[in-house]
TrEMBL record:
Keywords from the UniProt entry: Membrane, Transmembrane, Transmembrane helix
Originating species: Penicillium salamii
Top-rank taxon, per record: Eukaryota
Transmembrane regions: 569-591
Stretches the record annotates as Disordered: 653-673
Stated name of the protein: Transmembrane protein
Amino acid sequence: MAFFPFNLRCSAVILMISALLIALAFAVGHDALYQSLNRKPVLHVEPLFTINSIQLSDQQVYVSLGTLFAFLVKSCLGVSVSTAFDQFAWKSIHGQTTKIAVIDDLFSVLKHGFTLLDPRLWRHYPLSMTLAAMCWLLPVPSILTPATLSVKLAPLDEVVLQRIPRVDFATANFVNLIRSYERDAGSLGRQWMKVYSGPTPDVQRIVYGAATQGKVLAIDPAAANSSWLQEFHGPALVCGEVNQTLRAILTRNIATAINASKTNDNGSGFKVSSYTGYLYLSWAPAGEDPVNVVPFYQPEHNGSYVLQARQIGPDPWATGGTEDTWLSTASEPIQKRSPLSVFVASFPRMAHNVDIDNLDAALQNSTIVQCFLHNATYQASFEYVNGNQTVHVTDQKILDGISLLGGIEGVVSQNQSSFIQNPQIMESMAYQSVMDAFCGLLYGYIGTNIFKANNDTVPGYASTPSRAHTDVTSTILMETEELHQLKANLISGGNDSYIDYWRGRSMSSLDQPLTPLATTIQDLFRNTTISFMSSSLFQPNYSTTTVPNTNVTISTYRNIYNYSRLTLWVTYGIALGVTLLSVIAGVLVWLSSQGSYSSKFSTILRISQGATISVKLEKEDYSGFDPLPDHIANAQLRPGYGSQETTSEMVAAESRPSTELLSSGLDEEHQNC
């Protein structure tokens, strides 16, 4: 007697459905196991345990568990499909006369895969053979699904609070201050003054390095592979083209200076006038009025013009202002005047033969940019991957302008600690120092000699190769739209067979997109500002300043588990879907048969009861040994259940039933024993 529920009439249905549901549960468990491991590190420090010097790692355990789940899913699906196969196979031979060899092959197809290649079985039992083929293909998911868990090298992110590179502009390392005087101020006590004399060499080194490379200098990261976000205050340049009124004032002054540079050469019988033209100019305004904003001035009003000597301006002291207008005092720590600014101009038409009598044409299509110094708030992201640095300024807010501070004045006897310790004063002078060093690169000119022949026999104009009196040529500003074409004017050598030969064998610079001059100056100054984080001199002094730590994401590359969930569920989904169709078909067969079949011996015994066979079995056939004798293989068999017909050719119909032959044979064998 079978135990519950396999003693029920619907046992096959229960077995098919329950096995399918259990397979689904194991598939979900397989997915849950792998999903719990996804993106988790593989432990290589120590094995989980060691048995007889055999070390078992966590990776081996998890792969074995995955293989176990795949095996259980495959086994349960196999039970469902094989049970459905039993329903179809037994149903298909009922009421039909079939060769015993064919029935043998049909019921052995689940054990011998090569039987699937028998076209005779596919012709007579297509549904049963389809189920058998499904049964043989069910191991495929058990091969594919364990492989959905793999190991790969990937970064693992960990967020920690720690110190990051910063820049502290409230430090004396930016500014050179010299002692101007210390004198008696009567009732006020002794008065002192420190005068600004320019940026420190360390500031110049950072500025020159960033401007030459055109990018943020290498900053020591918080960790080898790390990233963080930082917000800080710093200087910023705001650049733009000058308006038409100011352009007219500036170009008129430049044309006047060119005309005033005239020199005559009457040697060799030729009358030639020489002028100094300008392809590039950069200067700082002395004042804010039109007279002092121009690049050239007459120092002694003797007819010759010289370029403004200062690198930053406007400077109230240079235009007749008093000390109160440019000094930081206790009553007015920060001067509120026009921001510091610098002019940068490009005159590309000066590179060609210039008509000195029509300088307006040569000064057309010029670019004149003015940049103002402001305080700004930066938001920047820093990322380091295997030593490669990436810095992006995600946001920049322009705040108030920074005016020139010529120095600091105070009184010794008075308690001026709040004034002396005011960080805004030092920050303002640090910003001024950075701009001073930056403008030191821009300041100067790229000139060219313009010749005018005054002899009728040699008419016309000519120009000689340009010469640079500025350090701007060593910066990336030469890769801008306005200055890029000036590089050709700075290269001498002409065109001849010698130069052409060696130029043809030399590397040429790669064509890169050119950027506008104003935008490039702003970006370069911003990169310079951030580059101060690369030097320890400009870091905060943590012994005197409290600076909060920052969330730093540290990435460490380790072997992690990588789970391909889609692959697992596509594989299992196909297997479960095919099995579901098999179960549905099996249930339909069960409904039509009104009973369950199995491949147990009792099922064979009962179905063979009343079966008719077209040959008479001999005593030696009762052993059941392989191979099957040919006369039995070719014999026709008709199961007795479900059919009331007999045929005249059935020898068994005229003799005894096959079960009687079977029982008598067993009795004889027992007696012989």
